[in-house]
Amino acid sequence: MIHIITTGGTIEGFDYTEKENAELEKDKVLIREFLQSANISFPYIIEKVFAKDSRFITDEDRKFLLERIKTSNAQNILITHGTFTMEDTAAFLGKLNLSKTIVLVGSFILETKPKTDAPFNLGFAISALQLIKPDVYIAMNGKVFHWKNVTKNLYTNKFISKNKK
Questions:
Q1: Would the N or C end of the chain have less CB density within 10 A of its end CB?
Q2: What is the distance between the alpha carbons of residues 63 and 49, in angstroms, rounded to a whole number?
């Protein structure tokens, strides 16, 4: 079983382009619809723990997320997350040696926009989650990064390995 935990971000409909304070554009997370249309054959549950622009995620939020992970019966955890602080949350969780496979995923382009990377990133992250060993990772744009070796390149808007800046 895969436990999908949602926290907000562009992948869930937050649009940061024209708003000083990001707002949830719609109250509906399309992850369930994506999984249904993909005709997946594994069991999953989706749990919304909060819906925030990741720039405003606090350590208290991360502790709440941690409790949901610890109490989950699933070994495989997928976390949808905004890209602004995704690596911070990955490091927070990675330092705890949770003995679960945890993958954080998001998107750079709103899932309602043309050329969105949301469905690809989500599908890729789910595949990676089932193939990698227990630890914490970020899966974005066709690559998987260990929590200790990832950073966001603000010029290219892509995640890269820290040792390849």
A1: C
A2: 11
How confident is the model over 93-120, as pLDDT tens digits? 999 999 999 999 999 888 778 888 999 9
Cα–Cα distance measured from residue 2 to residue 50, given in angstroms and rounded to the nearest whole number: 18
DSSP 65-83: HHHHHHH-S-SEEEEE--S
Two tokens at 55?
A: 């720039």
Q: Are 8 and 52 in contact (CB under 8 A)?
A: yes
Residue 47 CA, distance from chain mean position: 13
The answer to which of 39-43, 93-97, 143-147 has the lowest mean pLDDT is: 39-43
Say if residues 138 and 120 touch (Cβ distance below 8 Å): no
User: What separation in angstroms does the CA of 53 have from each of 1, 16, 39?
Assistant: 27, 8, 30
Give Cα separations from 123 to 34, 35, 36, 47, 120 (angstroms): 9, 9, 12, 18, 5
Question: Length of the chain, please?
Answer: 165
| Tokens read off for 156 | 């290219």
Burial of 111 (0-12, 13-18, 19+ CB in 10 A): buried
